[in-house]
UniProtKB/TrEMBL annotation:
Organism of provenance: Rhodoferax aquaticus
Pfam families, per database record: LysE (PF01810)
UniProt GO molecular function: amino acid transmembrane transporter activity
Keywords (A to Z) from UniProt: Cell membrane, Membrane, Transmembrane, Transmembrane helix
Compartments reported by the entry: Cell membrane
Listed name of the protein: LysE family translocator
GO biological process: cysteine export across plasma membrane
Presence of the UniProt keyword Transcription in the record: no
Topological category with respect to the lipid bilayer: Multi-pass membrane protein
InterPro entries per UniProt: LeuE-type
Keyword Manganese: no
Predominant location: membrane
Length: 199
């Protein structure tokens, strides 16, 4: 069992890292504003499964891929940038009431891809394991426990972003407001893509 002191440190690391603004949280808030919590659940669950899968991948040592082949990180970064621009295009397209009503919520695989193409997540998980794995304890037990805690924290923190987006934007239903939301969310995604590309 991992020591309680380590759990405290892990939570002190994970909560602010997961709760802080970034590409993933911006997307979750925008989707919450567009589709509400219920409509965002499939995307959110795919997002959290991505968190769990990548926690296992890094925890069991496959992070060596990025050390051995730095170009793999560059491919991930540019793939993420293109995916966020694709999301931006979707928001820009949905600036009219008719287009918004025709737009289906994003699904489970969209959430998984969005998380998987987010360089911030990969860096966060890599740093987390470099700080909190104890060589004297069984690796499988530690990786599993840390991954489950990380996902549990993610569920709570990401819900806050989704619900916040819903509360902020769901009451604004005029055609003008919907156009402004589409443009604002689209511009947010463009800024996220620029941040990802330049980081």
């Amino acid at each position: 069992m991992i020591e309680w002191k380590v759990w405290g440190l892990l939570l002190t690391f994970a909560v602010p890292m997961i709760l802080s603004p970034g590409p993933g949280n911006t997307v979750l808030a925008a989707l919450g504003g567009r589709f509400g919590v219920r409509g965002t659940v499939p995307f959110w669950m795919g997002f959290e499964l991505g968190n769990f899968v990548w926690c296992l991948v890094y925890g069991f040592g496959l992070s060596e891929l990025f050390k051995t082949y730095p170009v793999a990180y560059d491919l991930l970064k540019w793939g993420g940038t293109l995916y966020v621009l694709y999301l931006a295009w979707g928001f820009f397209k949905s600036t009219s009431m008719a287009e918004r009503q025709d737009q289906a919520p994003m699904g489970f695989m969209d959430g998984f891809l969005s998380l998987s193409l987010n360089p911030k997540i990969h860096t966060m998980i890599l740093v987390m394991y470099s700080q909190f794995l104890t060589p004297s304890l069984p690796l499988a037990m530690q990786v599993t426990q840390i991954a489950l805690v990380f996902v549990a924290v993610g569920l709570v923190c990401h819900f806050a972003w989704i619900y916040g987006g819903q509360v902020l934007f769901s009451r604004i239903q005029s055609a003008r407001s919907i156009r402004a939301q589409g443009i604002a969310f689209g511009l947010s995604m463009v800024l996220v893509a620029a941040y990802t590309a330049l980081s």
